[in-house]
Amino acid sequence: MATGTALGRPRSLPALPLVGSLLQLAGHPQLHLRLWRLQGHYGSLYALWMGSHYVVVVNSYRHAREVLLKKGKDFAGRPRTVTTDLLSRGGKDIAFASYGPLWKFQRKLVHTALSMFGEGSLALERIICREAASLCETLSAAQDTALDMAPELTRAVTNVVCSLCFNSSYRRGDPEFEAMLEYSQGIVDTVAKESLVDIFPWLQVFPNKDLALLKKCLQVRDQLLLQKFTEHKEAFCGDTVKDLMDALLQVRLSAENSSPPEPGLELTDDHLLMTVGDIFGAGVETTTTVLKWAVLYLLHYPEIQRKIQEEMDHKIGLVRHPHLSDRPLLPYLEATISEVLRIRPVSPLLIPHVSLADTSIGEYSIPKGARVIINLWSVHHDEKEWEKPEEFNPGRFLDERGQHIHSPSPSYLPFGAGIRVCLGKVLAKMELFLFLAWVLQRFTLECPEDQPLPSLEGKFGVVLQVQKFQVKARLREAWRAAS
Ligand code: HEM
Ligand code: PLO
């Protein structure tokens, strides 16, 4: 911060007493787009009021880098809202927990467990490939008929996370899986939408349809989590750690045995449940959403799909399945995944951050307790950083010879950055690569003849959702001939 000169506050949208700037935002369900467009009038960094909360909106990479990386610690807090408090039992998870020693401890535990079971281990590759094979079988069985791929993609991804968290998986049509699909959709539809309830907590006393649905869905989720927790507790002997749930139980057991217990680091049952709930929820909804966007873009751009398949035929062939070690061989597929993550960021406003001290962004002063929204949509669609940002062009992520992948602009943060960076980045990238490689080696994905091309417009929420669409998965002639 400059010494001696007092910094001013960012320009603010007009605000009325009580409702704040709600009038400028109401009637615009696509909040990321509204905040992106408001830059035209207020500049790339501006402030607004959500009820009594002071909110700063960051739309440029330069400022996003300052918040997430250079002053990461100043901005590592999270707001408490009615809906995320319900989801996480008052912030006992990782994603919606305030910055503090317990949050740090939980993050570290999960990070260690994920690297132990997953990232870099052959076991995880085997699990993903098992699910990819099962997905391909389902697509084969549905050959040439119009199919909603969403539940199939969700089951494949869920089973990977389920294996990691609980060492279990679901079969097609499993009623527990159907229940999970339903409650998770209910949560995605209602949580963290900066809905009225989150702006005015006192509205909780009135009946609210969204809040009622969220509570009902959370009941189902809690039952399911508790059942897994109890089964694990009963079977746990302390020696063999099969999954994340066991790993958390083991850490707690050793903490209980060490006396005196470390102050501030006591993991209650709620902390364990909410941590697993986070990884399960984040693991399923994010990766599935990216896969749906990828399939949708491939329907719109058959020439890009063909190019991926040509690259695969050339580098891997049709005799063996794709492996993780093939990633450097398939830069065009990797570039396509990167471009999907740019053009339709799963988390277009990240999760809101909160300033933990009086601080600054650029030439503006930011008071302690401000909510800071990083508009990733703006960062990924900034015309000063990206040529024709609205164009889907995987080539922009390739070097001149098309052999190596690189980002042409630093203005690219699909997983966030810094202290609160996504915990599942490595896992997600492994899944996206293997699932897409397996499917595209065998099938060409097409829009059913009798249907218009589905819309590329997302639906804003805690993740940027894809509208429902159908696909025809046609077995490739080359694959048929080879097998
Ligand atoms: C946080 C993106 C997959 C677990 C985040 C954030 C983003 C993000 C943007 C917020 C960063 C911030 O607030 O500054 C993505 C994308 C994914 C993905 C694009 C898929 C392509 C996953 C997976 C897991 C996961 C598979 C779990 C295994 C988490 C957790 C947080 C998080 C726990 C909260 C971190 C914290 O607050 O400390 N992710 N994510 N994510 N992600 Fe992911
Ligand atoms: C998705 C619905 C689940 O039922 C619960 C859940 C838990 C963690 C959340 C996730 C939901 C949405 C995506 C989130 C994730 C934590 C990190 C991730 C917000 C609500 C992202 C992309 O930031």
UniProtKB/TrEMBL annotation:
Spans traversing the lipid bilayer: none
Top-level division of the source organism's lineage: Eukaryota
GO molecular function, one term: oxygen binding
Subcellular location: Membrane
Major localization listed first in the record, in broad terms: membrane
GO aspect biological process, one term: response to antibiotic
Cofactor(s) it depends on: heme
Matches recorded under Gene3D superfamilies: Cytochrome P450
Keyword line: Heme, Iron, Lipid metabolism, Lyase, Membrane, Metal-binding, Monooxygenase, Oxidoreductase, Signal, Steroidogenesis
Record's GO cellular component terms: membrane
Residues that hold heme according to the record: 422
InterPro entries per the UniProt record, alphabetical: Cyt_P450 (IPR001128), Cyt_P450_CS (IPR017972), Cyt_P450_E_grp-I (IPR002401), Cyt_P450_sf (IPR036396)
Pfam families associated with the record: p450
EC number: 1.14.14.19, 1.14.14.32
Family: Belongs to the cytochrome P450 family.
PANTHER family the UniProt entry points to: STEROID 17-ALPHA-HYDROXYLASE/17,20 LYASE (PTHR24289), STEROID 17-ALPHA-HYDROXYLASE_17,20 LYASE (PTHR24289:SF13)
Record protein name field: Steroid 17-alpha-hydroxylase/17,20 lyase
Organism: Cyanistes caeruleus (Eurasian blue tit)
Origin organism lineage: Eukaryota, Metazoa, Chordata, Craniata, Vertebrata
